[in-house]
Each structure stands twice: as structure tokens, then as C-alpha cells.
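Hey, can you fold this?
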Amino acid sequence: MNNDINALLSKQPILLFDGECGFCNKSIQFFLKHEKKSTTKIRFAPLQSDAGILLRKYFEIADNTDSVIFIRNHAAYIKSCAALRLTGYMKGLWPLMTIFVIIPPFIRNVGYNYIAKRRMKWFGRVEQCALLQKEDKERFIAF
């Protein structure tokens, strides 16, 4: 287990997402389309995967946490904290969103929780991830 977690942590930054969620699937596609070309490439893993489970255990994040999890510099961020930090890896005006980290998470997460609670109803479940280009497929952690 120690070797597995060390191997995973060496792949940071990592975004854990709900692999069954249509909204999460579309969000990953959106991110890949708007990602800065010069930044460190983010790796991805479904929360339900062995890698996702192992990382959640390592960072002591409850199994029932209804959130994306962004892991960077050996720290794990959830909910709006994760989403806002992710915008720093995007091109265009998206990185300006990081200014909202000055708002306390309990306030920011009201909106996050509203969407998270309804995402399956609005976007449904997916059986498999969308078709990705070869270089993007290699960034998904699977074990």
C-alpha cells in the first residue's frame, strides 16, 4: 500500500471526480478543452477507482463526500476550494476565479452544494467516460 500511495502522490496534481456523473464527465471535457498548454498536466481518477479510494483514505476524506477532490502539493481540497484551484490551470479569464478563495468556504459551498445535490437529476449517470484523445487518455489514472 505504501508503494501504491507513493506512486500516486508522484503524479500530482490529481483531480478525483465522480466517474458515474454526467456533469462531472462534461466538466472534465470542458477543462481539457480550456486547459493552459504550458502548465503542469493534471491527472484524473474516478472517486470510485482503486486510486480514488486509496487517495481518499490517505487524506482522510469520508467516502460519502459529495465533491471533486483536487490534490496538489500533498494537500487535498474539496468542493469550491478544489474547483477554484483548478481554474488556475485554465486559459483565458478562468484563473481570475481564484480571487474568490477570499470568501469563506462555508459561504462559497452553498452554491457548490446546490449543484452537487441536483447534478445527477440534471445531467444523469454515465456508463463510461467520453471518448478522449490519446494524450488525454494517458492522464487518467486507472488501477
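Oh, and this one too while you're at it.
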Amino acid sequence: MKRFHVHVGVRDLDDSIRFYAQLFGAEPAVRKPDYAKWMLEDPRVNFAISTRSGRVGVNHLGLQVDAADELSPLRERFAAADARSLVDEPAVACCYARSDKHWVSDPQGVAWEGWHSLGEVQFYDAADAGDRVGQASACCGPASTAPAEREVEPAGCCGPGASAPARERSAAKCCG
């Protein structure tokens, strides 16, 4: 079984934890000084926030598998989507866990992570541990798949930043 993953960079971890705990109706399953993670069952999602990247907003998306034998078919799907950007990371330490991972970027440069967790580690990434776990990591995505930071226009037709005329003109295109 797979679990959808979203990792969001935040400015203020405590404020964000309060917000998401209320939104999800649950406290984080993991809480560190720079990181928090919810393992929700409804919807089935691994939702993480951190202050580590220096950017706010979506850091990356992903699919987490429950069993090692589910990872190979997921890697095949990543390769079919874009073999040129595929990066394999076996037994890497990231986000307080050791995992076998694969990364690919979508056409917009958004990093997608596919992984199976092998267990917890004490540090956010191997660099924090002085490489004590055996492999340096570009945690939350190799540099080649990290999403580019870019200016984002206010929400187009449906979001809170949209003007009333914009919502009316394009409601049928994206809000319906």
C-alpha cells in the first residue's frame, strides 16, 4: 500500500504545528526542533513540515511504500515518467529516518520522492551526524531534482488572492 507524501517548508514551526494539528485534528507523530510529521490515515498521507530548506512552500511530493518489494515497481514508474532526472539513493539518512529512495522531477521541476523507510536515525541527515550513518545526503532531494524557487503569482481563479472578475471569468475552467 502506498501513502501520499507532502513536505512543506515553513517560517515558524510552532505556529505551523498549531495550525496543522487543528486542521488534521491530531498532533504530529514525530516532532523535532526543526521538523514535524503527521502520519494520517484519513486521508492516507505522510505530511511533513520543516524549517531546514530556507524556503517556504511545497518542498517536494512523494509516494511512501510500506514494504521493500513495493519500491522496485515504483522506481520503474519514476523511470518511465523521466529517466533523465531519476536519482537512486540506497540506505540514505534523511528526515530522521534511513530509507531506500528514488527521486524524479516533474516538467515544472517539482521533486518527487519514492521510498521505503528502513528505520529511524537520530539526525535530520547524515551531514548532521558527521556522516555517522555512512552516507552523506542532500536531504529532501538531490540537488538535481530540488524544486527551483520561483515567484508565484497570487492564486489564479479560485484562491484567496484572486479578484472577483478573475474568478468569474475562469470559474468554469478551473473551479468546477
